[in-house]
Design goal:
Elements (H helix, E strand, L loop, with lengths): L5 H6 L19 E9 L4 E16 L2 E12 L9 E10 L5 E10 L2 E10 L4 E4 L2 E4 L9 H6 L12 E8 L2 E16 L4 E9 L14 E5 L6 E7 L4 E10 L12
Antiparallel strand pairs: 1-2, 1-14, 2-3, 3-4, 4-5, 5-6, 6-7, 7-8, 9-10, 10-11, 11-12, 12-13, 13-14
């Protein structure tokens, strides 16, 4: 894998669980917006934005959720390193298994377009590079985070690791997310009662280590990431929740003090 950027970092916060439709903590019309901050000289600057939108559609005669994740550097930051990324995932509404994944990224001089089709009957992933065997319930980069939002964290104790498999760049990665307990977290936009996690990252990318990312998600029925923080090869990134619209459940994790 050549590159993983800030939007990808936010997506690598993952796990898979089989859930029923009524338990899903998201719905048609949900939109979540993040601000990306970058620190290289001891000062965090507003470097870009990332958004995730969810719709419910028909795809190949099946009911699917269609999630689009878009990331872009701010225009006044483009001269340093311009990013315009778009990720799409189509996954089944009944079992949340991935049907199709699209990655269209532009990061400086690096460009990549990728489509992956998943065959759940044969447990294969089809790309322009060939047909690859994958584990049952393998995740793509986007739909993994929506599976993750269904985790019942009350079943875990501090230090527990939750394993999952992801297909990316024609490879299967066996990864985990570590549960670190609960705490309050104050971001640029608010204070939240949160669940603290440490996702394993893929070695050989822009990240310094495979387990140095920390993530906080709302301690409510939504399980929305409110902050992601990680050292990278040069500096540190911090991603904060800025706005969310049309949530399925009230945002009850906002702290009152």
């Amino acid at each position: 894998m050549k590159k993983i950027t800030i939007l990808t970092a936010l997506l690598l916060t993952l796990q898979y669980f089989t859930v029923s439709a009524q338990e899903m903590p998201f719905q048609h019309g949900e939109r979540i917006t993040y601000t990306v901050f970058y620190n290289v000289i001891g000062l965090y600057i507003n470097a870009g934005t990332a958004t995730f939108t969810t719709s419910q559609e028909q795809y190949n005669n099946a009911n699917v959720f269609h999630v689009v994740g878009e990331g872009a550097t701010n225009k006044n930051y483009d001269w340093i390193f311009k990013v315009r990324d778009r990720y799409e995932s189509y996954f089944n509404t009944s079992n949340l298994q991935s049907v199709k994944f699209i990655r269209n990224i532009s990061e400086g001089s690096y460009k990549k377009y990728e489509e992956v089709s998943f065959n759940q009957q044969t447990n294969t992933a089809i790309t322009s590079g060939g047909v690859y065997k994958v584990p049952a319930k393998v995740q793509d980069l986007i739909n993994a985070i929506y599976y993750a939002r269904n985790i019942d964290f009350s079943k875990y104790k501090t230090g527990d690791k939750i394993t999952f498999s992801m297909f990316l760049d024609n490879k299967v990665y066996d990864l985990y997310i570590k549960y670190l307990g609960k705490e309050q977290i104050k971001t640029r936009y608010g204070k939240y009662n949160a669940i603290k996690l440490s996702p394993q990252l893929i070695k050989g990318t822009v990240f310094k280590d495979d387990d140095k990312m920390t993530m906080w998600v709302t301690d409510d029925a939504n399980h929305i990431p409110v902050r992601v923080e990680s050292p990278i090869s040069v500096g540190t990134v911090k991603i904060d929740l800025k706005n969310c619209e049309n949530l399925k459940y009230p945002m009850s994790a906002v702290a009152s003090n």
